[in-house]
Amino acid sequence: MTLQRLAKVRSLSTRHVFTFRGKPIQRISRSFRTTLKDAGITDFRFHDLRHCASTNLRRAGVDTATAMKIVGHKSEKMWKRYNAIEERDLLQAALKVQKYLQENTPRTLDPKTESL
């Protein structure tokens, strides 16, 4: 997707992420709390979205330097702190290794059933 197409989703004419009628929203705390309440979401902070974005960028395969720039991390230590490694991440890693080994491990011929 090009930046022009992304601009149709969210205006790129401003550096602000949250706008209302083209003007930046100065404080979203009340709207955020109301939205969480209406959705029945508890124990969630606005800052949790940054953790989620970092983890999703990693899972999507975005390289570390680019992802760090997107979320505003200046050190790899902070980047690592924001990434949640869950059971499914470990499973995906194991499946990738398994696929790699299946595709790249030479087979040994069984002399009883196979011939060169």
How would you characterize the overall build of this protein?
- The chain has 6 helices and 2 strands; from the N terminus they run αββααααα.
- The protein has a two-stranded antiparallel sheet with strand order 1-2.
- The protein has one domain.
- The protein is elongated.
- The chain has helices at 3-9, 29-39, 48-59, 64-71, 76-82, 87-104; strands at 19-20, 23-24.
- Helix content is 54%, strand content 3%.
- With 116 residues, it is mostly helical.
- β1 (19-20) and β2 (23-24) form a beta hairpin.
In short:
The chain is mainly alpha-helical. Helix content is 54%, strand content 3%. Strands 1-2 form a two-stranded antiparallel ribbon.
DSSP helix fraction: 40-55%
Sheet-strand content, in percent, reads under 5%
Domain count: 1
SSE string: HEEHHHHH
Indicate the low-confidence ranges by residue numbers.
Answer: none
Mean pLDDT, nearest integer?
A: 83
Tell me the overall shape: elongated
Largest sheet: 2 strands, antiparallel
Distance between the termini: 48 Å
Count every helix, treating DSSP H or I runs of 4 or more residues as helices.
Answer: 6
Which structural class matches the secondary elements?
mainly alpha
Please tally the β strands and state the result: 2
The Cα radius of gyration reads: 22 Å
Strand order in the largest sheet: 1-2
